[in-house]
From TrEMBL:
InterPro entries: ADH-like_C, ADH-like_N, ADH_Zn_CS, ER, GroES-like_sf, NAD(P)-bd_dom_sf. Keywords: Metal-binding, Oxidoreductase, Zinc. It comes from the Bacteria. Belongs to the zinc-containing alcohol dehydrogenase family. Pfam families: ADH_N, ADH_zinc_N. Residues 14-360 form the Enoyl reductase (ER) domain. Its cofactor is Zn(2+). PROSITE patterns: ADH_ZINC (PS00059). GO terms for molecular function: oxidoreductase activity; zinc ion binding. This is S-(Hydroxymethyl)glutathione dehydrogenase / alcohol dehydrogenase. It comes from Marinactinospora thermotolerans DSM 45154.
């Protein structure tokens, strides 16, 4: 029988969310119901709300969440009621070409759940789940493949960050760029994912680690999470970074903003033969150009990074181990704990480049 829960409902592109009740069905075959402990507010949620990423509406957005399984479908045996889990917004099918070739983060069918209604408004209007997870609600219903068991000993609220910010940021360092000990790193953009990239660089043994942002207020937090240097974004950035790296530029630059201008800054800060990794989600009409000579001459590698090039089923437990051991600090990444009704304020801070991760707490 459907249950009534509170959720943030986005009615159309560009419209602010309305906080109200939705009707959530019991989980059917292959699905589970999760009561959310918390949900992180990611820049991808803002991109979905503003139409920069494809999303059917009306919808409940939110994809970075953790909570407790409270009901399972009739055929579900691998997930138990009472189990604490992290949501996985890109569950691989394990059968497509990409999955069979070691790239589950590029799975052809990982986004299928986002295109089918999962709940409804009280008047019967069908609702879609943002990125298939719909974490901006007290409860959600997702496929069993979209939950990853959370190991014991991890605080359940901050664990939400493992599902996107940390998996993406640390994975960009360890899986995509494969940073080695002693290599130099620059991180451009210090939102939630950028802060996780810093921690990934520290885990990898990078040195120096140069943090870059438009806000000087982020220097203290960046240093706490692993940065050895902090610089403000600006026209002279690449020159400053070369000055910290023997005149060469960094071995690895990570762009975590999602703009052509930031990608160009990261590229220009990378040494000859180095690597620039694009983690931020940009707009399709934000054009970036290179001349043919610079691509040859600098011999740099430019790569995109989707979901940290990770497999959540194996990488989330490993990241949780680092959290348990104190090597990753989730709590420090959360600069604002908010209610569901304060979600628009979190989007506003994001647009202004303020703070790290905003975390909606339901419990």
């Amino acid at each position: 029988m459907p249950t009534t829960v509170e959720a943030a409902v986005f009615s159309e592109i560009g419209a602010p969310p309305r906080i109200g009740e939705i009707l959530l069905p019991d989980p059917g075959p292959g699905r589970v119901k999760v009561r959310l402990a918390a949900a992180g507010v990611c820049h991808s949620d803002l991109s979905l709300a503003e139409g920069r990423l494809a999303q059917p509406f009306p919808a409940v957005l939110g994809h970075e969440g953790a909570g407790t399984v409270i009901a399972v479908g009739p055929d579900v045996t691998d997930v138990q009621v009472g189990q604490r889990v992290v949501l996985n917004w890109a569950p691989p099918c394990r059968s497509c070409w990409f999955c069979h070739n070691g790239e589950p983060y590029l799975c052809e069918r990982s986004g299928d759940a986002a295109h089918s209604p999962y709940a409804s408004l009280p008047d019967g209007t069908a609702l879609h789940a943002g990125l298939g997870t719909a974490a901006f609600a007290q409860e959600t219903v997702v496929p069993t493949s979209a939950v990853v068991p959370l190991p014991d000993g991890i605080q359940p609220h901050n664990a939400a960050l493992l599902g996107c910010a940390v998996l993406t940021g640390v994975g960009a360092v360890t899986n995509s760029a494969r940073v080695r000990p002693g290599q130099s790193v620059a991180v451009i953009g210090l939102g939630g994912v950028g802060l996780a990239v810093l921690q990934g660089a520290r885990l990898a043994g990078a040195d120096p680690i140069i943090a870059v942002d438009v806000s000087p207020a982020k220097e203290e937090l960046a240093t706490r999470l692993g940065a050895t240097h902090f610089r403000l974004a600006g026209d002279g950035l690449s020159r400053e970074i070369r000055g910290l790296t023997g005149g060469r530029g960094v071995d690895h630059a990570f762009e975590v903003v999602g703009s052509a201008a930031a990608i160009r800054q990261a590229w220009s800060a990378t040494r000859r033969g180095g690597s620039t990794t694009v983690v931020g989600v940009g707009a399709k009409d934000d054009r970036l150009s290179f001349n043919a000579l610079e691509l040859f001459h600098f011999a740099r590698t430019l790569r995109g990074c989707v979901y940290g090039s990770a497999d959540p089923a194996t990488d989330i437990p490993e990241l949780a181990r680092h959290v348990h051991d104190g090597a990753i600090d989730l709590a420090a990444m959360v600069t604002d704990e908010i209610t569901l009704a304060e979600l628009p304020d979190a989007f506003h801070r994001m647009l202004e480049g303020k703070g790290g991760r905003s975390l909606i707490r339901f419990e």
